[in-house]
Amino acid sequence: MAPKSDDERPTLEDVAAFAGVSRSTASRALNDDTYVSARSREKVLAAARDLGYSPNQAARSLVTRRTGAIAVVLSEPEARLLDDPYRTAVMRAGYRELADVGCQMVLIFSDTREDLTRTVRFLEGGHVDGVLVFAPHRADPLPRALRLLRVPVVFGGQAADLRRGVHVVDFDNENGARLAVSHLVEAGRRRVATIAGPQDQGAPIDRLAGWRKTLVDAGLDPSGLAEESDFTLAGGARAMSALLERAPDLDAVFVASDMMAVGALRTLSAAGRHIPDDVAVVSFDDNATLAPAMTPPLTSVHQDPREQVHAMVVTLMQLLEGQEIKPAHQVLPVSLTVRESS
User: Fold this and answer.
1) Going by DSSP bridges, is the β-strand pair 226-228/192-196 parallel, antiparallel, or unpaired?
2) CA 81, CA 66: separation in Å to the nearest integer?
3) Each residue's pLDDT tens digit, 293-316
4) Angle at 124 between CA 119 and CA 126, to 5 degrees
5) Angle, CA of 272, 274 and 275, to the nearest 5°
C-alpha cells in the first residue's frame, strides 16, 4: 500500500473526534500530561492507534499552537532574590511544578517601565502558553497590561489594584498575622510592635492590618508601634532600631518576614535585649532553612510556596485546557509554628 500523503494522514482533530474529547485534551493525553484523567487518556491513545496517528513534536506544536513554555514573572529586581528566601523558594517550586506537567519555565524579572515594555512585547510574541505572576506592587502597571494579552494569567498574591476578572492564589496573610499576635498577647505581652513589609503590596498590607486589629480587639494600643521596611535583613535591623528608640518598653515584635526578623534579632541582641525574656519575636514565612536555624529558633507563621505554586499551575493548566473557570481569589490557609523565640 502506498504511504498516505500529508493531506490523508490523520490529524489531532481526527484523534480527538474519534475519542470523543476536545483537541486540547487529546493533545495533553498524547503528551503524557498528568492533568488528564486515566479514562480520557486511554480513549485518546486507543484512537491514535486505530487511526495510525504518530505525530512528531514539531507537528504537534503547529497543530496545538502550544510552545510548552510558561513564563514566571517576578515583579522585583533580580538583585533582591539574594535577600529573599521566599522568592527563591517560589522559583524552585515553579520550576518543579511546571516540569511535572511537561512545561519549560521562562523566568522574567519586571521591575522598571523598560522591563514592562520588554515583558509585554515578549509575552505578546507567542513565546509562552501562559503566565504566572508573583506579588506585583499596588501601582504596578503589569497586571493591567497583561489583561490585554491572549494568554492565560494567574497571579500569586493580589493583582495590584485589580479585584475582578483575575485568577489569584494567595495565602491568608491577615489571619496569619492574627495568629502571630494572638500568640504573643496570650503569652502576656502588652507592648507588641511590628516591622511591616512594603505597604504597596497586598501581603504586607494584610499582615499589618491583622496585627492592628488583633491588638485593638485585645484592648491594646498599637499607636507608635509599627515601622515599615523592605523585606531585607538590613531593613529589619534598621526598623528594629527605630522601634527601640521610639518605644523602649516594647516586649514583643511581630515581623512580616523571616529575613527581616533575622535583622531584628541582631539589633535586639546588640541592644542587650534577651529573646524571648525581654522581647518575644514572631515572624512570617517559616522558611525551612532560615527560621529553625536562628538563635533562638524563630516562631513563624507557616506558608508553603509549593502549595501556592501548585494551585497556580493547576488553575493555569485548566485554563489552557479551555475549561470555563470563573476568575476567583483563592486563599490558602496558614498556621503558626511555635519555637523558642516566643
Assistant:
1) parallel
2) 30
3) 999 999 999 999 999 999 999 999
4) 115
5) 140
Which residue in this structure is represented by grid cell 496558614?
334
Residue type, 167: H
Lowest-pLDDT choice from 95-104, 202-211, 266-275: 95-104
Going by pLDDT thresholds of 50, 70 and 90, the confidence category of residue 334 is very high
Nearest to 203 by CA among 29, 337, 84: 84
Contact 101, 29 (CB under 8 A): no
Terminal Cα distance for the chain, rounded: 80
pLDDT at 32: 67
Helix (H, G, I), strand (E, B) or coil at 313: helix
Paired with 130 in beta bridges are 70
Count the helices and strands in the chain (H runs, E runs): 12, 12
pTM of the shown model: 0.79
**Is 61 strand, coil or helix?**
helix
279: nearest Cα among 291, 287, 270, 289: 270
Residue 330 pLDDT greater than 70, yes or no: yes
Contacting residues for 41 by C-beta, under 8 A, at least 6 apart = 29
Phi and psi for 117 in degrees, rounded to 5? -60, -45
- Check: CB of residue 326 under 8 Å from CB of residue 194: no
- Per DSSP, 291 falls in state G
- With contact defined as beta carbons under 8 Å apart, do 139 and 200 qualify? yes
Looking at the DSSP assignment, which residues form a beta bridge with residue 71? 106, 131
Please give the backbone phi and psi of residue 136, each rounded to the nearest 5 degrees, phi first: -70, 155
Collapse the DSSP code of 333 into the 3-class scheme (helix H, G, I; strand E, B; otherwise coil) and give the result.
coil
- Between the alpha carbon of residue 31 and those of residues 23, 61, 110, 319, the distances in Å are 12, 11, 31, 17
pLDDT averaged over every residue in the chain: 88
In terms of phi and psi (left: phi > 0; alpha: psi -120 to 50; beta: otherwise), the region of 224 is left
| Burial class of 148 by CB neighbour count within 10 A (0 to 12, 13 to 18, 19+) | exposed
Tell me how far apart the alpha carbons of residues 41 and 34 are, in angstroms, rounded to a whole number: 10
